[in-house]
Amino acid sequence: MKQIDKVFILIASALTLAWSAALFAVALGWNAGPPLSVTLITLYNRTWETVVVAGVLLLIAVHLAGLVLRRGEEKAVVTETDLGRIRISFRAIENLVCRTVRGIKGVRDLDVKVLPRSGGVDIQIALIVEPGAVFTALADEVQQKVVQAVGETGGIVAGSVAVKIKAVASMARTRLE
């Protein structure tokens, strides 16, 4: 979830919480008078409907706040050793794959997705390649280097490395080697 999504959800949950509190107050007999909206005044005489609406809004507010404030455990490959547990996050594997593939001649840019698999991971790579790159040769090199890097650096078995040529870059970029 992106940071801006969290901000919007937090604002929505705060507004929903305020509305549910106001509705509960009206249901319990609080008369706010002219400054409060006409909706609340109309609901003043409908106690059960007001309680139901307030309850639903309260549940929505709590759920939305929980989504923002809860810290989910990041996906990772977990290995048990004699000395303890080793967790390698999918983000670390993605970064390793990006660094490895960006070093291959003919690759302009890439997107990486790591998926769980029993005994290891599957890796999906979408490439934007340089003009003139030979697709099959480049894809083979990417697969070999990714399997080697993930295996040697992370000690993780890459079950499959799927390479997709997403696009060919429009202009050649000078590359320092």
Structure, explained:
The structure is a single chain. This protein has 177 residues and is an alpha+beta fold. The chain has 2 domains: 3-69, no CATH class; 85-168, Alpha-Beta Plaits. The protein contains 5 helices and 5 strands. The chain has helices spanning 3-27, 38-43, 47-69, 90-102, 135-154, and strands at residues 76-81, 84-89, 107-117, 120-129, 158-168. Strands 3-4-5 form a 3-stranded mixed sheet, covered by helices on one side. A hairpin with a 2-residue loop joins strand 3 and strand 4 (120-129). Helix 1 packs antiparallel against helix 3 (47-69) and helix 4 packs across helix 5. The longest helix is centred in the N-terminal third of the chain and has 25 residues, at 3-27. The two termini are 37 Å apart.
Low-confidence regions: none
Number of helices: 5
Strand segment tally: 5
CATH top level class name of the largest domain? Alpha Beta
User: What's the structural domain tally?
Assistant: 2
Shape assignment: elongated
What is the terminal separation in angstroms? Answer: 37 Å
Mean pLDDT: 82
Spatial strand sequence of the major β-sheet: 3-4-5
The description of the largest β-sheet is: 3 strands, mixed
- Kindly estimate the percentage of residues that lie in beta strands according to DSSP: 15-25%
Described by its quaternary structure, the protein is single chain
Q: What order do the helices and strands follow? A: HHHEEHEEHE
Question: Can you say what the CATH homologous superfamily of the largest domain is?
Answer: Cation efflux protein, cytoplasmic domain
Please bin the fraction of helical residues: 40-55%
Gyration radius (Cα, Å) is 27 Å
